Amino acid sequence: MSVISGCIFRKPRLEDGGALYQLIQDCPPLDVNSSYLYFILCDHFRHSSVVVECDEKIVGCITGYRRPDKPDTLFVWQVAVHEKMRGQKLAGQMLNELVFRDKPSGISWIETTVSPSNIPSRKLFERWAADQDVPITSVPYLTADDFPASPNSDSHEAEDLFRIGPLSLP
């Protein structure tokens, strides 16, 4: 997988919070969280997140964190690719950057949750696991009934927990 010409893959910075908030808004069906949260992600979780900048605009991001109860596990929270950048395997390149940029990273597992209708995310993680030649499992994690009703939004779908690994990092 080649990196897209003219784009920079890097750790997010505090000042990227607003751009990440806007990117997530532009990428349904992702859940949009408060703008404040994206500033915190860009600052506190910069080492476990990645952004892609093309022509001084953020066009992709993966936010995540190391699980406190499983320090060898990277939990991928959101993956977003701007519409104009889709079809170039940018999400897989961001995942590679995130997992392989810090050697040794100590990451043996990747976990994420994906709703049943989010086929692009499911395919991303299945393809990435196959490219790494590692197992991927999926189990139910949250049901639609687990999510509280909200008068301002539609109901939330169930979420399945994907677990990829163990990884064999160089």
Report what the structure shows:
By secondary structure, the protein is of the alpha+beta class. It has one domain: Gcn5-related N-acetyltransferase (GNAT) (Aminopeptidase, 3-Layer(aba) Sandwich). The chain is built from 4 helices and 7 strands; from the N terminus they run E-H-H-E-E-E-H-E-H-E-E. The chain has helices at about 15-25, 35-45, 90-100, 120-130, and strands at about 5-10, 50-55, 55-65, 70-80, 110-115, 135-140, 160-165. Strand 4, helix 3 and strand 5 form a beta-alpha-beta unit.
Mean pLDDT: 91
The N- to C-terminal Cα distance equals 17 Å
CATH fold group: Aminopeptidase
Structural class of the helices, strands and pairings?
A: alpha+beta
Integer count of domains: 1
What is the H/E order?
EHHEEEHEHEE
CATH superfamily: Gcn5-related N-acetyltransferase (GNAT)
Quick one: biggest sheet?
Answer: 7 strands, mixed
Described by the principal axes of the CA atoms, the overall outline is: globular
- Write the CATH architecture name: 3-Layer(aba) Sandwich
What is the top-level CATH class?
Alpha Beta
Count of helical stretches: 4
| Portion of residues within helices | 25-40%
| Strand segment tally | 7
Q: Assess the beta-strand content as a share of residues.
A: 25-35%
Biggest sheet, strands in spatial order? Answer: 1-2-3-4-5-7-6
Low-confidence parts lasting 5 or more residues at pLDDT below 50? none
Write down the Rg.
Answer: 16 Å
